[in-house]
Amino acid sequence: MIPTRVQAALDVMAEGVLLLDQQEHIVLANAAFAERLGQSPAKLLGVKASELAWKRPDDTGESEPFPWVKTIRESEASVGTALRVQLDSDDERIFAVNSSPVLDGWGHSKGAIVTFDDVTELQRKSTALEEALARHEKSQDEIRRRNEELQVLAKRDPLTGVANRRAFIEWLEREFAAARREGQTLCCLMADIDHFKRINDTH
Fold first, then answer.
1. Among residues of the chain, what percentage have pLDDT more than 90?
2. pTM listed for this prediction
3. Handedness of CA 39, 45, 46, 48 (dihedral sign)
4. Fewer CB within 10 Å: C terminus or N terminus of the chain?
């Protein structure tokens, strides 16, 4: 039997708290934990903690034992395990779970005390931020691609794909600057094709 003053002290905590026996049965649930699950503390008494509607964040099932199970078996604390619990309202809560062993006078495990920090809103905001960053990155990639296309269009004849006057001037300026910097001679050969308009119109 849990003293009333202990229950009252735990009920004022913002974190959810469970006190479990050696078989994982709930012997105490504070108001914060029960409220998160839409239950009353009294209805949770005697329920096996592992049988609540827990889900792993990555939906890998129960390949790893729940943190309180390991704590009870090995008398070791566990910190920061992420767990989700499915609610009847098709909603879910996400918790960061810590558990510590409850030991008798000889150091043997008699159960565990488990705390549940509700990080649902933090996780949702983090997910929303990741999605927004992904959209932003995709948008930036699209803008970069469009700019590259515009650069090509600005320097190429759209009909033939041949470099135009702007491309020639840019290339000439780069080569002229390089020749001056390196003290090299720059030569430019120009050719003229007679009646080129006729060729252009025909081909």
1. 7
2. 0.56
3. positive
4. N
